[in-house]
Design a protein that fits this description.
2 copies of one chain form a homodimer.
Chain A (H helix, E strand, L loop, with lengths): L5 E7 L1 E2 L5 E6 L2 E5 L15 E4 L2 H4 L5 E5 L5 H4 L2 H4 L7 E3 L1 H13 L8 E3 L6 E3 L2 E8 L6 E8 L2 E5 L17 H10 L3 E5 L13 H11 L6 E4 L5 H13 L3 E5 L1 H12 L24 E5 L9 H6 L13 E4 L8 H13 L3 E3 L14 H11 L3 E5 L1 E2 H13 L14 E5 L4 E6 L4 E5 L2 E2 L3 H14 L1 E8 L6 E10 L8 H16 L8 H20 L4 E8 L1
Parallel strand pairs in A: 2-20, 4-6, 6-7, 7-8, 12-13, 13-19, 14-16, 14-17, 15-16, 17-18, 25-27
Antiparallel strand pairs in A: 1-3, 1-21, 3-4, 5-23, 9-10, 10-11, 11-12, 21-22, 23-24, 25-26
Helix pairs in contact in A: 6-7, 14-15
Amino acid sequence: MLADVIRIIPLGGVGEIGKNCIVVEYGDDLLVVDAGLKFPDAEMFGIDLVIPDVTYLRERRDQVRAILITHGHEDHIGALPYILPHLDVPIYAPRLAHGFITAKLREHRLLEQSDLHVVEPDQVYTLGSFLVQPFRVTHSIPDAVGYAIHTPVGTVVHTGDFKFDPTPVYGPPPDIRLIRAIGDRGVLALLSDCTRIEHPGFTPSEQLVGTTFDEIIRDLTGRVIITSFASNISRIQQALDVAGRYGRKVALVGRSMAQNTTVATELGILRPPDSTIVRLEEMRRLPPNQIMLLTTGSQGEPAAALSRIANGDHRQIRITPGDTVIFSAAPIPGNEESVARTIDNLLRLGADVVYEALATVHVSGHGSRDDLKLMLDLLRPRYCIPIHGEYRHLVLYRKMAIEAGLRPEHIALLEIGDVVAVDADAIQRVERVVSGQVLVDGFSVGGTLDVVLRDRQHLSRDGVMIVVVTMDRSTGELLAGPDIVTRGLSLTPGNNGDLIESARLRVREAVVNHATEIDHAFLSHKIKDSVGDYVYRQTRNHPLILPVVTEV
Amino acid sequence: MLADVIRIIPLGGVGEIGKNCIVVEYGDDLLVVDAGLKFPDAEMFGIDLVIPDVTYLRERRDQVRAILITHGHEDHIGALPYILPHLDVPIYAPRLAHGFITAKLREHRLLEQSDLHVVEPDQVYTLGSFLVQPFRVTHSIPDAVGYAIHTPVGTVVHTGDFKFDPTPVYGPPPDIRLIRAIGDRGVLALLSDCTRIEHPGFTPSEQLVGTTFDEIIRDLTGRVIITSFASNISRIQQALDVAGRYGRKVALVGRSMAQNTTVATELGILRPPDSTIVRLEEMRRLPPNQIMLLTTGSQGEPAAALSRIANGDHRQIRITPGDTVIFSAAPIPGNEESVARTIDNLLRLGADVVYEALATVHVSGHGSRDDLKLMLDLLRPRYCIPIHGEYRHLVLYRKMAIEAGLRPEHIALLEIGDVVAVDADAIQRVERVVSGQVLVDGFSVGGTLDVVLRDRQHLSRDGVMIVVVTMDRSTGELLAGPDIVTRGLSLTPGNNGDLIESARLRVREAVVNHATEIDHAFLSHKIKDSVGDYVYRQTRNHPLILPVVTEV
């Protein structure tokens, strides 16, 4: 490998939303930006979460100088507990993310052996041959940064997730002066958030939501329930402020809501008005107009507090007419139906429900087209790599960058595992490395989970048919069975018995008198052959057929 | 039952989108408006479609005077092939719907015994003690009507799905004069579409899409591929018109696209410009700027033409750079991810893709708030029942109706199976009837499909573990096994063999020496007990455990 090129390798986060993980490589030094997870999509039955395949890093563990974290969202930090046992590498994160990571690693009993550092914007960190300069941006979580990574070949800038919020709820606005200064020094390659490129203009300030909260809650006489992401500390701050303003006490409902607010309060990032937060039990003695609940469940997750409240099976909270529920979040793609169901159930119980279509109770943390354009203008990079977007977002970002004056061949649309080499002359795709997704289910990480998932997908569509035959070891005769058990197989009403009986006869014919020697593979094959097509013709189902051949 | 009340019973279409089916009852006469299906939601594994439970109608088959169809969408006509065999009842439908129903019943070999009639707006039909007056509305399919159903107690109006399109592509605009005249005569109860109540203003005219098509296609030099619902004949008309204008030939790709356009052309509702439509094979000899393809697959359905094109496995069509694909449809809730995936795959192949976020290539067929308000103002009903909406839409419609001057107690929000009695004095919920959903999978309709589906859901999450033991019939001894087979169960890498081996030992302990008499239920129970918790502790999976006890 030539030492005078930088190699950039996305192990996640391009052509998809989630499991952000980008490698920046110079000579023998590797830096990783973010190590996030993705929540499983609808077809990933029973899978808990999805993390990037970091084989590439494991094979170079001695060369990985650090993992830089841009902010504390799960899609940027969630893979750490699964990756760290394989990589002995320091982590650098801004304060709130540092707090969330600490809690997370403690839970996974990994904190002791971890090497965690807080990064402060405005400081410069030397990591291997890199000079790393974090800069302040704004996002839907406080304490978000981008990174300028200076190398002898040039500077790579990673924006993290960002919008230009001129009036953030916590902390100063994005450090436009510093970003411009980095641009003035010359940027070789920009890795930019692009997920909201479809939206024109600038994304509104987070403060707009606080104004809406105030307008809605000011005159309410009933209870108020607000649901949002538990990591959206600024949103929670604004809810608390409005509660304080109108004499409401606030209880935090749901584990992550309680845990994140504790971390953020200890760090001084969340500042609840004095004696506003109370325990849920204390709400009993308060009149409705002094009550606000902040709950998890903004995505309609079945196990979350709000979903249980909406289903009428939360132990402590019952909806009554007069309650107002505010959905202060947009559904993540794939969650639209479960959110809609939760809203409907709350309405059925008599609550008033306010959601994004009805009032500005949510704004995005990602920059719209003009935010993205502004970042590009401030940094004026030679090359550009849009990240953190579905493929269509990458394509639209490229169009925007070309309109902004970049040359088409200077914009690289990457897929996960692509390696681009960057130097003063060109940006070019040079190879592909092992990469992809690793599934996590319970205690299982990767391994045969791909096969397990394929089986689950098959089972979910067509069910299973088990065919058991018992053979005489010495004669090869059929001693018992065939016994047939099905689950999840749609049998036409009326022919249930017939179908199973006919299938038994077919199996019997297939297995009797074939050989004295019992060849399990051969018999299994014969059994599948004898019933597969028949069952399909009768039911239009293709069940997973599992022959079990027992010898006595 | 008193003869001087009207009973209204939704068997579908309230609190949900789809399987529209509303019963209007007076004395011994029943009318049904629409008999639609719903496509299965994401958790209905392997289910093909969902239809309303019409037990109520089957039990009164001699009293059902007719099924009135408002328009030819599947969610209004799709249940007919499953319902008609149980109900010997005439169907009344506007011309295009009549054409679609005819094709559908022919396919199900039900046409011969069916009693199908065309309804013409402006005419009045006597059905039992009802006078039925269809009136012209506009929707995303030509030939849509609402119905005024006159009874001795008063008039019930069912709007069907509608918007007020002043410039529809086919036929005249909604018959506002007739609708107002019906209102002037007095309307007792209005059943109104409400699905788009969240959107302010009026829904734009269908013609707007034609203008966008023209702007996009005018200067294109490559091929154009447009995907839309195959029932959206006006959309197809506009695509054909633009093709004709710019010298492009059009091929229809996908079975329903070909079938629906044939029906609509035969009826004179679709009027392709002369010699515009050609066979797909003929496209080979044409340059790209003379090619337009109209395809199914606007919802990203895996088997549809466009999805196969996007995956690069369509036999005749390959995407090349220069192609432009227009998604002229909005994703139905639940289909967002598959649509996004299709768009991304097309972009990866080098196509330009235009979709709703980027240009007005789609408008809804449903009226927005002001359309709904206008209908209410024209009809000035005494009572109101919002239909064709999720529960939140019903609630928002009620708010709008109250603002428009209706009394809150005159607006009924119904659930499926609710019966309301309506007369001059009151609208009140009086009882509930058997109702709900019937699942269809292959040849199976209803029956045990609920159980089958629950098993599939279980299998999809945690897989299956089959435990086979072979016992000696005379002694009760364990002769062979336990054999354990799993599928879809996530085994922690490394402990796969161990887990199965330990499970076998546990089962063995549980079944040996228990009795000489073999009690299958008891043994099955013992087997499940012996491994269920153990497997969960080891894997965090709760597989479906299927014991098979064989006797020799």
